[in-house]
Every structure is written in C-alpha cells, then in structure tokens.
Amino acid sequence: MKKIGLLNGPNLDRLGKREPEIYGSKTLEQIVEETGTLGKQLACEILAYQSNHEGALIDKIHEWSDAGFSGLIINPGGFTHTSVALRDAVIASGLTTIEVHLSNIHAREDFRHKSLISGIVQGVIAGMGTRGYEFALRHLAEAS
Questions:
Q1: Cα–Cα distance for residue pair 112/135, rounded to 1 Å
Q2: Is the pLDDT assigned to residue 111 strictly greater than 70?
Q3: Alpha-carbon distance 137 to 72, whole Å?
Q4: Cystine design at 136: which of 32, 98, 123, 142 (Cβ 3.0–4.6 Å)?
C-alpha cells in the first residue's frame, strides 16, 4: 500500500470559517476525511498534517521522506509565495509531489501569481476547490 502525505500550510486550519467565498465551506477535517476514504479505495494510506509553522512543515516532509512515502500532496498556503526553505525540503525529499490550491492563485492578487513550489513539483492543481486534492491523489495512486 502506497503511503502519501497530505500536507497543508498556514491558515488552512481555518477552512470553513475563513473567506468561504474564496475557499469554500468544507473544513480541513472534512477534506482529510474525504481524501482518506478515497485513499482506501485506491490502495493508498493517507497521513495528513497541517501547521502554521514553516519549520514544522519542513520537518514533516523530512520525516515522510525518511519513512519511504511514495508521494506528497502539498497546499503550502501563504508559504507558496515566500518559502525557499519549504521548496528546498520538497526537492530534497525526492517525493513525487503535487501542489494544490483551492482557489486559482493566478486570478487573484499579483503577489499570489508566483509560486516558489510550482517549478519543482510534478503537477499543480489550482482553482478546482477541494476536488484538487482528489485529482492529486488519483494521480499519485496511479504513478509508479
């Protein structure tokens, strides 16, 4: 069974409360539950983690890499646009990684158009709401 990490960055613990017109009404707990259910159907074990702290996210990537995980779904939140350290951790992990954003970051404020993560991951899914997590998981489940 493939192990896939589901990593969510800052403020994603506020989903369902924070700007539902942009991010939707589902909570992070609901997204994790739905992703885990789909994971079982796809013979994947999903381990989820969320933090508002950059170093904690980096530590989790290292941990999952060392534990032999086969993939990573990452929604870096605000760190998308600012964190070279998170980018470096993804590169160093060797994990097949898909970047997910609930909103279309390219249709928002100018500072959100640039992702430091996008250039080093296998794929990016933006603007598809919570379905982006599903699409990312389906891809990773099929990847060798």
A1: 22
A2: no
A3: 9
A4: 98
| Residue in the block written with tokens 């989790």 | 60
Query: CA nearest 130: which of 2, 17, 23?
Result: 23
The pair of three-digit structure tokens given for residue 141, joined into one six-digit string: 């489940």
Asked if residues 135 and 101 have their Cβ atoms less than 8 Å apart, the reply is no
Helix (H) or strand (E) holding 46: strand 44-50
Written as six digits, the tokens of 140 are 């990773």
**Active site (catalytic) residues:** 23, 101
| Cα distance between residue 101 and residue 92, in whole Å | 22
Residue 65 — φ and ψ, nearest 5°? Answer: -65, -45
Per the CB < 8 A criterion, the answer to whether 4 and 69 are in contact is yes
Tell me the three state secondary structure of residue 63: helix
Average pLDDT, the chain: 93
